[in-house]
Amino acid sequence: MRILNDLRAKIWATVxxxxxxxxxxxxxxxSLYHLKASSNARQMGNKKEAFFDELRRDLSLTDEQAxxxxxxxxxxxxxxxxxxxxxxxxYEAIRQSARARIRxxxxxxxRAIFDAKIxxxxxxxxEGEKDER
Length: 133
What we know:
Layout: H1 2-58, H2 63-105, H3 108-132
Helix pairs in contact: 1-3
């Protein structure tokens, strides 16, 4: 009987250790993902600035030309932002339609898992959109 109790204790200790290790790994990977996502948003801004600096240097722009080109690039970025805002509802409608069709194929247990995954995906996308603004 004592051997059986020792074995059960070892099994439970192993299960708990694996669970804790899984939680720690998940938390670390989640943090790493969010760090990378915010870094990518900053890099995008840096790339735009680097492109402008490259134009200024390679084309030997005057201060007046640089100011005009900066204005053009800023206006263009704003137009792209507005276009994304206009098109976003259409993307969202297609996304929701696809999700509904997928949910119709799944059983209740699968739907719950799918919904949780979608909630995580939406949260990550919303974080990315905040960084974009």
